[in-house]
Design a protein that fits this description.
Structural class: mainly alpha
Largest sheet: 2 strands, antiparallel
Strand content: under 5%
Radius of gyration: 25 Å
Order of helices and strands: HHHHHHHHHHHHEEEEHHHHHHHHHH
Number of domains: 2
Strand order of the largest sheet: 1-2
């Protein structure tokens, strides 16, 4: 044996086997797909010498340090807050131009975040920000102020892997949230219960863990909390605040909104609820109740999100081959992952429109419950849109809808022409990437073996297109 080692050393050969605890290529890819958007070979290679725990620490620590977006924000995010009501004295053409301006701003804000996801070096930071955006739901459709939605994104990003208690208090003070859930109309003597109800039902505890009385008392505690123009800052209007005694979850006192949140966090269910949500997002659709409780028990000691994510992503199920393909890619993951994997020169605006067509418009969750997630992404219309997107990348379908249709109608002429012109460039890069892949590269693209493998002798672009159209490509 020593002779073999000596000869191998002279020849420059490596004889050191990977430690038993080191990740395999397949496990590294699965971890990257679960925590990001793609699994490029260089990142797989970087994780391969590490154990699952070491790899998780590296990913979470990098994301926790990345608290600011690198992409410059639209130049209007600092403007005073105005409600985009169409002035009555405008002519028809002027009204149309006014509406188009606001629609273009929405697209610009969406493209800003999409560009960050397409180019980030810490995908987990974006995935966590996207998770909280879908959990603590607000929508441009109701908030009607892109400046406030931008600030909310900045807040969610800064706290995405920070302290959950701090995050929850920030959400309750967030002007976009208060506008979205009508807390602007919540005042002493005439409480609006929308924010209090969703805080308890969808954000922190879940149905069955509070009473209608608790919800009503919480609404009283949040009276007078609102966002004031022109800058949209949070204020507590004292004359509108109910400072009477309230009884909430077994406690009595002259509570305000911050007191309500602190009482919520004393409930064991608060930690269980959020751990269960994170498990669904990053591990599997079937949480292990005993493991959820174990993680929740640790989490509620200090409410630190980064350590929780490190524990969660150390679950064997995260990299187990038996759990591969059990999670469904969201439209944003599908689009961003495809563009990043292939290195496509796709504009962020095109990516926004593609994800929107599949059912996920950034800053526009469909309702207060957020996006459906899981199998809810797999509808016949959504799958058709995913197929159309892949065909467009390969040059086999139009890149954008005809001018004047859908959201494309809100684009300036030069923006629309830019989207059309990129078709040839994108298709060329698609072909170049396909040529660089070995025939057995399905494992680099798919979480499981393809349902419909490419035909023997297929040309590289056709082979790549077949993999991306395979049902398995929707899974991670």
């Amino acid at each position: 044996m020593w002779r073999y080692r000596f000869i191998a050393t002279l020849l420059g050969l490596s004889v050191t086997a990977a430690p038993a605890w080191a990740l395999t290529d397949t496990q590294a890819r699965q971890l990257l797909w679960r925590t990001g958007f793609d699994a490029p070979p260089e990142r797989v290679s970087a994780l391969r010498p590490l154990s699952q725990g070491q790899a998780v620490d590296r990913l979470v620590d990098a994301a926790a340090d990345d608290r600011l977006a690198k992409t410059p924000a639209p130049d209007w995010v600092g403007e005073p807050i105005t409600v985009p009501f169409v002035p009555k004295d405008l002519g028809d053409d002027e009204k149309q131009a006014f509406r188009r301006m606001w629609a273009q701003r929405d697209l610009q804000l969406q493209a800003w975040w999409m560009q960050e996801m397409l180019t980030t070096e810490t995908p987990l930071a974006e995935r966590m920000t996207l998770f909280w955006h879908g959990h603590f739901t607000s929508s441009l459709q109701s908030v009607r102020a892109g400046q406030l939605m931008y600030r909310q994104n900045v807040m969610l990003r800064a706290n995405a892997l920070g302290n959950y208690r701090t995050l929850l208090h920030e959400v309750a003070h967030d002007p976009a949230m208060l506008r979205y859930l009508n807390n602007q109309q919540n005042r002493k003597g005439a409480p609006n219960e929308n924010f209090a109800r969703e805080l308890l039902e969808l954000f922190t505890l879940g149905e069955g863990h509070y009473s209608e009385h608790d919800m009503q008392q919480a609404a009283r505690a949040f009276t007078g909390w609102k966002a004031l123009p022109p800058d949209g800052r949070f204020v507590e209007v004292r004359r509108q605040h109910d400072d009477g005694i309230k009884s909430f979850l077994g406690q009595r006192g002259n509570f305000d909104g911050d007191d309500i949140i602190d009482i919520i966090l004393r409930q064991p269910q608060a930690a269980v609820f959020i751990v269960d949500e994170l498990w669904h997002e990053f591990v599997s659709p079937n949480p292990d109740p005993s493991e959820v409780e174990r993680l929740a028990s640790s989490f509620r000691k200090d409410w630190q999100i980064a350590p929780l994510m490190k524990q969660l992503l150390r679950e064997p199920e995260v990299i187990d081959a038996r759990s591969a393909g059990t999670l469904v890619k969201s439209p944003v993951e599908f689009v961003v992952g495809t563009v990043r994997s292939i290195g496509l020169p796709l504009t962020p605006l095109s990516a926004v429109l593609a994800a929107d067509s599949m059912g996920q418009a950034l800053f526009y969750p469909p309702n207060v419950k957020g996006w459906p997630g899981g199998d809810g992404w797999i509808t016949s219309d959504a799958l058709l849109s995913r197929r159309q997107f892949v065909l467009a990348l390969a040059g086999d379908a139009p890149m954008v809808a005809p001018q004047g249709q859908g959201r494309e109608a809100n684009l300036r002429k030069r923006e629309y022409q830019q989207l059309r012109r990129q078709r040839a460039v994108v298709a060329r890069r698609f072909g170049e990437f396909a040529e660089s892949l070995p025939p057995d590269a399905a494992l680099q693209m798919l979480a499981l073996n393809p349902v419909q493998p490419p035909v023997d002798g297929a040309k590289p672009p056709d082979r790549l297109e077949t993999w991306l159209l395979d049902p398995v490509y929707n899974l991670k």
